[in-house]
Design brief:
Keywords: Membrane, Transmembrane, Transmembrane helix. This is Colicin import membrane protein. It comes from Lysobacter niastensis. Among the domains are: 76 residues; 90 residues, Fusion Protein Consisting Of Minor Coat Protein, Glycine Rich Linker, Tola, And A His Tag, Chain: A, Domain 2 (2-Layer Sandwich). The protein has 316 residues and is mainly alpha-helical. It is 50% helix and 8% strand.
Length: 316
């Protein structure tokens, strides 16, 4: 608390009054302890004569020896006077340094009153120990609930991170599988191209040799080999075909087969004329695909990429 000039002046005045009272008490004490002047009494003064005790008669001396001893009066010991302590000079007040600089101008009046109800704050009862324990217990329970909620939230976030990592891993595996499948298809296509080139060269060489040795009149075609090739195709497809009950034995159907050298079937479809119903047509197309690779070795000279085959329904 900062000491003002009025407080300093008031302290000095009280100190002077205290000194004045102390000096007055000392003066009264000195007057009280001063000895009283002797008082003169009326009458003649007392006369006394000195007598030698040895000059007295024996009877007088005996009487003097038997006289009672006077009672000695005890003088009271003088009590030391209680003197008040000398007044000590008061220390000079030292001005204290203001912790904060003096305000340049008075603080503005705050027109907005305090919204809190001071009477309600003052009248609020002091919490009892039981109430304080209950508050602490409720606080601990709330902290435990908050801790459990934080742990649950962390567990949910951890599971989400794991699920995201697993999804990314599966996506990477799927990309790797697609890349491998693509590379495999490209390798197969490259191998098929190489095989096609080799087959084409073989067909050209066989055709050239057949043309050189073929007898005149048949344009260099071996009709016996072509018939055997058609019979081999009929037998291979028939081995993979299950004849439906709606297709009679001996019924004929024309097939258009697109194949590669080596007997790999690219597509197979039914063409007119065909005496089979819809079920029979689908079954014969599926049998051609199941029968691949179709016969090729030994029939290179009569091999055709776009082959037309007249298939006859028979039992195996």
């Amino acid at each position: 608390m900062r000491e003002s000039r009025a407080d300093t002046a008031q302290a000095i005045v009280w100190a002077l009054l205290l000194h004045a009272v102390l000096f007055a008490l000392m003066f009264l004490g000195l007057q009280w302890t001063r000895d009283n002047a002797p008082v003169s009494a009326a009458g003649s003064p007392v006369a006394a004569e000195l007598v030698d005790a040895n000059a007295l008669t024996p009877a007088m001396q005996s009487t003097l020896r038997k006289r009672p001893k006077p009672i000695e009066e005890t003088q009271p010991q003088p009590q030391p006077e209680e003197t008040a302590p000398l007044p000590q000079p008061l220390p000079e007040p030292v001005p204290e340094e203001a912790p904060t600089p003096p305000q340049a101008k008075p603080q503005d009046f705050i027109p907005v009153p305090d919204a809190s109800n001071q009477e309600a704050v003052v009248d609020q009862p002091t919490p009892m120990p039981a109430t304080e324990d209950k508050v602490q217990e409720e606080k601990r329970r709330q902290e435990q609930i908050d801790l459990t909620e934080r742990e649950r939230q962390q567990e949910v976030e951890r599971k989400q991170r794991l699920a995201q990592m697993e999804a990314e891993r599966l996506k990477q595996l799927e990309d790797i599988r697609k890349q491998r499948a693509k590379a495999s298809r490209e390798a197969q296509l490259a191998e098929q191209r190489l095989q096609q080139i080799a087959d084409a060269r073989a067909v050209q060489s066989s055709t050239a040799s057949a043309s050189a040795s073929a007898p005149p009149g048949n344009n260099g075609a071996d009709t016996g080999l072509q018939a055997r090739y058609a019979a081999a195709l009929q037998e291979a497809i028939l081995a993979k075909w299950t004849r439906p009950e709606t297709v009679p034995i001996g019924a004929r159907c024309r097939l258009l087969i697109h194949q590669l050298p080596g007997g790999q079937v690219m597509s197979a479809e039914v063409s007119s004329p065909c005496a089979y119903d819809e079920q029979g047509r689908r079954s014969i197309e599926a049998a051609v695909l199941k029968a691949q690779p179709l016969p090729y070795a030994g029939f290179e000279s009569v091999f055709q990429r776009n082959l037309t085959l007249n298939f006859t329904a028979q039992d195996q």
